[in-house]
Hints:
Helix content is 52%, strand content 16%. By secondary structure, it is of the alpha+beta class.
Amino acid sequence: MQHFTKAEIRQINDYYDDLKKDIHPKFTKDKLAMVDKAFKFANAAHNGVKRKSGEPYIIHPIAVAKIVTHDMGLGATSAISAILHDVVEDTDFTVRDIKNMFNKKIANIVDGLTKLSGDFDSRQAMTLKKMLMTLSDDVRVILIKIADRLHNMRTLDAMPPHKQVKIAGETLYLYAPLSHRLGLYSIKNELEDLSLKYKHPEEYNQILYRLHDQESKRNFLVDEFIQPIKERLEDEKIESTINGRLKSKFSIWEKMQKKGVTFDEVYDILAIRIVFTPKPKVSEKRQCFDILSLITDIYTPKPDRIRDWITTPKANGYESLHVTVMGPQGKWVEVQIRTQRMEQIAEYGFAAHYKYKGAASIEQELEKWLEHIREVLQSPDSDAFEFLDEFKLNLFSSEIIIFSPKGEMFNLPKSSTVLDFAYEIHTDLGNKCIGAKINQKLVPASHVLNSGDQIEILTAENQEPKIEWLKFVTTAKAKSKIKNAFKLEKRKHISKGKKIIEQALKKVNMPPTADALKRITGYFNLSNKDQLYSQVGMGFIEVDDLNKMLKKKAENILIRYWKLTFSRKKKEGEEDKSNIDQKKPYILKEKKEQTSYSLAKCCNPIPGDDVIGYISSNDHILIHKKECPKAEIFLTSHGEKIVTAKWTNFKKLSYLTKLKLSGFDRIGVVNEVTTVISKLHNINMRTIKFDTHDGIFEGELYIYVHNSGDLQNLIGKLEKIKGIDKIARVEDLNE
Ligand code: MN
């Protein structure tokens, strides 16, 4: 192993001193000692190793730690993990060693970073997705990874050109958007500019040259614009700094590419930022708007160009008030107004926030932030690259601004369509949307919106939601509303079909028993009765066909009953021994009199169900549900022992019955189910069991009810709970 020269050792110490200077006022003594220990350990571990640039390797982790503490405002755990981040990957030490020397948290972070290292290929994308998805308490892995990448980009010169292009590409594809999403704007800008430098060196140099060339002219324009504002702010005793904001080289380049415009056209737009110290007791928002009104006293604002990110901050925490005004040279100038706190968040990410709240709330703030990022990283299952694309798309959500005809402002994700906007405003507007007028031009509902569009939704009374719509809407809101509309529509068809079928059954004097329905369903080759109802409701099954079919069925049933009566008469002698009069319906009373009856275990009828009685002995009757398969067998083979049965009003005794529920897993579903049951005084719950997998829940409910009316009432109420899709009564309690 080679050793470092004195000059190299001095260089290492310089870097480390620089880091110490940054963390000294922020960290406690204990933590500083830990950082020191980490440095000594990593320094020894990387001893003699050099980077491609020829510098001692340890300089890299130190620089990463500095980015982590200085630019991201993170604490000691992150700093130490950053210092150690390449130890496991590049030396013989293991994660276990780190755990033993430091702690579990740090070891976990280093482990995560080690797994994330190496080239970015498909396997890597998988790993990355896993990492992102399983992020529990350590978003710090990603933050340090970004810092690592930033330092690698800053020192990319030492790499061979083909690697430069590859690394720059990755940075642009993944790390810059990630930084943007995490609110690390200045890091994002730097990553983008550096990527441009290596991906398109010529264009980068040209922009650099032009910026330099125009600098003095620009400064003059900025000063001219700022001066009157400065004076007014001083009059109002508002402490502030005003700067001409330079667009990043990358954003200039991107605009030139995307809009096909020249450097001058992009560069022409001045942007100014006012950062002020808010006065206590008055809300920051109010003070921002006060400054806004002070500026519009001087310069005319562009109508509809006020963007209020204070009332509704961007998803990554960004807050600011933007306005575009007409400057002295007849040019539009964008002005951003924000407090120092907002500026910190905008430049250094949400983590910077805690600087203003003191050390006590660091953990709390970080926790909130983590929670937020976890939300951001939620995404349905998909393959790794698809995930990344989706993730990237989501990164830029809430990025276009759309205006209603009245000038109300709406925030929508990029690539939102006319229909997304319609649903954003109102469900009915979406359901009836046939297209829109954008800047006086007619466009279809699928038209993709651009930021700044003023749009008027066109509707038609006879319009209905279409399933194809799901293909082009992008917002979750529109998607769920379209799906809901279909569910509602389906429910309408079902209840319409149910009525038609019940009427048809009445015509042939058949009760709408489950058995009858099962037969009809089978006849039309359908799998369940809801399908039957909706097919009839939608008119796919003609009412005529239904009537014909039922007429035939009814005749068959008559024949069967006739046979039953016939066979019964044959055995009249036997029947006399029974105390039960088969000619009359057997009345089921809550209080059992002379003859006793019991409820069959196979189908568990409850009072109110359609039932028949089976005379099992002289004075005992077994009650089955009519649709019970056993009852069917009895009807055909032991017709002589069958008696019709009727319930009286049951109010005291309770019967155990079982329901199966399924639907979409939603927080609070179980709670709502139990609340519904507990509010019904005539129903008691015995057990409830819920299982969830892949966003679907399945529940089993054992309840005591008095009769089927109460049960129907309960089912009706449960059906109304959001997320519940199916409720079925289960006959066999042991199933
Ligand atoms: Mn590294």
